[in-house]
């Protein structure tokens, strides 16, 4: 079934059903995405303020067979938020649905609309002395609806889980324009199919999330953060086991950092403090959050790691300022990567046991294809690495456009052979539709198509994302 | 679309595709369920040993339009495992698929077939010095496939989540007979719709779970267990907040116990030790699991509770034997309930803030209908109560058959008005199909029917469970 581009007639009719200024010409910022691989070609922008307005919009799009591209903060890295081609869609931005509807500190629940910026949600929790633990580089502009639609990950998944794990209930508009009021604050509710988790991670292809009830947590009274130089990724994993033996679920973050990333930061973001110099080949950023004694626990972990020959150097943050500097270094790595410009980026996950071997083998495989630099870093505790491939110094990524596909194929083939995933936290979007076709389980793909057809028979929701048009 | 009962011809043809003895006459135990509300009427029993055999069976049932009732340990309390009526189904028991396929202690993952008994799974984890935290009264006979299909809860949900939260990956056979190999050990995998969570909690209506990759945890080195007498449910909730302030995520269990339950136990299971005498109106069973000092932490919590006027008495287990006795008392409550025989049982959840008010109001509402005794107990920390209604001493539940419906309606109406759930952890099964129709969100129900139709167009999977036949 083909879709129609938005027409003047469509806009006129729909505008009459909505408050003034809800529909507008689409601005350029809604047609671009951070990595510059996809570009939209016009359409109309809708800025609803209520779930009822979203429902009105979806019903109209269904009647007119107009595609709908839900838009959060626009920070996604796989092109899920930008629809190229001439079937110009309605871009549905949730940015005006940006109210925190309620905070229930005693229940540890916050209810927020889809357009709330992640950092604002964190602040609203903090104002009640609670923690909303989802945390990622783009939290200053990402919106919670997008975080949920893509099941975002980030640096605290190790302890608190993905966006999926933080969600108790949803309000959403389904592709037929019906409102699902599933905004429960319950911890347990076994009344039928798990529509919540079906919408989470569906990247806007099965409906539009308009609000969510989310879990809050106690803010750990004692937080300790350290950088530790490790022998290699395998030693880092052993160190993680030591940290867990000492602090249990108190290990909040365990991030792997490679020298290549530190060198990119030193070159392109020279104001960034580098607490350990010269840059070691491998180090980890460890954070513990306990009711007391986090720094002592870090010292115990470091001593145990030293004795076991896993770590050789380290520094524990002595102030909030120093802790912020450690995290600033971690966050500078993807920023520096972006400045350098990768030939290919891979957001992969592996069973923990396969991780160390993969890094070695994949680096070799990529270097066999060309004179590349590899920056491998990320959420080691989750088995989630960003394995990014860069040209040699003085060269531009555009010189290797013809190799990009081969590089990614090699990396992903290896990941899949080891029982891993070609998209750990970024999703499929439009970038990895082919990968999903290639690597996805056939029975699952068939079931996905059946579900898509059942809930969105006209295919209006985020056309071309996740699943290739049928 | 109507289904056909199993015929001799069907059995003959299918038997030829399977190893000898895979199909058998169905034994009586597969036609009964614990509460005696549903009874099967024959059919044939299938005892496959492999996922391929399950696929063969489902394909044959699809061709012949024979209903399939997946069967785990048979411990479900809502009739999901027993199909009444004359359209005699194939009962698919997973009991011979009972291998632990692999344990990965360093990854904290165990891979088990659906037929593994929950207690055996706990033991397999313990043998590797790990914890598989799902724990519930029927763990000695419940099987993990059933636990996942019903998204079982139990006493450790507070800390570790429901069955859903413990599952990383699934192997399953879909209604069309295709095998989905989703048995990943990954912590992060954003590659398409969340089929795993769709099957979990679908109670066998969307396919058959044949194996799962499950999360393991470190066994807390220091476990402390206490009984504390609380003023009322509201004080219990404040005490929970104190416990969390002291022990963070280390609060593993927080169970509410009412005097009525203790009296039932004293009368019907008189060998059960009752550490606090005379029986208090309300008490809680608290368990902490920490890396060290759990008993000290319990003492701190008790002292703080005493000072705040929340608790008046308490006892901390001084040995493993004493701890086991505390838990034995907790587990004896549903056993005693069963002996007394309830007029109506309710497995409800509420927002924590609404809990205390509900108990008072619902008890009043029920007593207005008849001379009933109420035993309200359960997983307070999850907002999940078992609100069970019994006849006066010397009377039998059968005397109140005509009131059962009204009692449940009153209780559930109140639960729903407070934003709760009429099935917190037991599921819908066949018992609560009407409740789901009545209380379920219309848009969600429509989406559920569309998904069911898409994945199981013939309606062969557990007919009559969860959704009324269309």
Automatic annotation (TrEMBL), chains A, B:
Pfam family name, one: FAD_binding_4
Keyword NAD assigned: no
Cofactor(s) the record lists: FAD
Domain FAD-binding PCMH-type: 38-219
Gene Ontology MF terms in the entry: catalytic activity; FAD binding
InterPro entries reported in the protein's UniProt record: FAD-bd_oxidored_4_C (IPR004113), FAD-bd_PCMH (IPR016166), FAD-bd_PCMH-like_sf (IPR036318), FAD-bd_PCMH_sub1 (IPR016167), FAD-bd_PCMH_sub2 (IPR016169), FAD-linked_Oxase-like_C (IPR016164), FAD-oxidored/transferase_4 (IPR051264), Oxid_FAD_bind_N (IPR006094)
Source organism, top-level taxon: Bacteria
GO BP term (any one): respiratory electron transport chain
Keywords assigned by UniProt, alphabetized: FAD, Flavoprotein
PANTHER family from the UniProt entry: BLL6224 PROTEIN, D-2-HYDROXYGLUTARATE DEHYDROGENASE, MITOCHONDRIAL
Record-stated family: Belongs to the FAD-binding oxidoreductase/transferase type 4 family.
Name of protein: FAD/FMN-containing dehydrogenase
Native source species: Shimia aestuarii
């Amino acid at each position: 079934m083909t879709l129609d581009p938005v027409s003047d007639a469509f806009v006129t009719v729909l505008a009459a059903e909505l408050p003034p200024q809800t529909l507008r010409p689409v601005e350029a910022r809604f047609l671009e995405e951070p990595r510059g691989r996809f570009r939209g070609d016009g359409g109309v922008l809708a800025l609803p303020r209520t779930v009822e307005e979203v429902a009105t919009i979806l019903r109209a799009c269904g009647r007119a067979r107009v595609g709908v591209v839900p838009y959060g903060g626009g920070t996604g890295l796989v092109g899920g938020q930008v629809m190229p081609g001439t079937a110009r869609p309605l871009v549905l931005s949730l940015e005006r649905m940006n109210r925190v509807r309620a905070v229930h500190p005693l229940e540890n629940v916050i209810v927020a609309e889809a357009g709330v910026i992640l950092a604002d949600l964190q602040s609203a929790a903090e104002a009640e002395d609670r923690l909303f633990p989802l945390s990622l580089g783009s939290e200053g502009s990402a919106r919670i609806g997008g975080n949920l639609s893509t099941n975002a990950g980030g640096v605290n998944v190790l302890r608190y889980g993905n966006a999926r794990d933080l969600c108790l209930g949803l309000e959403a508009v389904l592709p037929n324009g019906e409102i699902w009021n599933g905004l429960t604050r319950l911890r347990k509710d076994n009344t039928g199919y798990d529509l919540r988790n079906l919408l989470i991670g569906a990247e806007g292809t099965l409906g539009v999330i308009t609000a969510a009830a989310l879990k809050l947590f106690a803010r750990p009274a004692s937080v300790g953060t350290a950088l530790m130089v490790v022998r290699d990724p395998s030693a880092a994993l052993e160190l993680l086991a030591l940290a867990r033996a000492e602090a249990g679920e108190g290990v909040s973050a365990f991030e792997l950092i490679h020298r290549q990333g530190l060198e990119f930061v030193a070159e392109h973001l020279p104001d960034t403090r580098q607490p350990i110099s010269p840059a070691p080949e491998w180090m980890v950023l460890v954070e513990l959050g306990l009711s007391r004694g986090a720094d002592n626990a870090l010292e115990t972990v470091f001593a145990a790691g030293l004795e076991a020959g896993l770590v050789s150097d380290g520094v524990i943050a002595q102030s909030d300022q120093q802790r912020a500097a450690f995290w600033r270094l971690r966050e500078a790595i993807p920023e520096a990567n972006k400045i350098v410009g990768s030939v290919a980026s891979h957001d992969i996950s592996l069973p923990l046991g396969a991780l160390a071997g993969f890094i070695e083998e994949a680096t070799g495989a990529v270097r066999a294809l060309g004179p590349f630099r590899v920056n491998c870093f990320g959420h080691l505790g989750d088995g989630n690495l960003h394995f990014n491939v860069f040209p040699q110094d003085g060269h531009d990524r555009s010189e290797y456009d013809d190799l990009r596909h081969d590089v990614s194929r090699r990396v992903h083939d290896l990941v899949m052979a080891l029982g891993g995933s070609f998209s750990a936290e970024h999703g499929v979007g439009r970038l990895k539709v082919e990968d999903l076709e290639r690597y996805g389980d056939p029975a699952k793909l068939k079931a996905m198509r059946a579900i898509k057809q059942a809930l969105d028979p006209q295919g209006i929701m985020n056309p071309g994302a996740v699943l290739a048009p049928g």
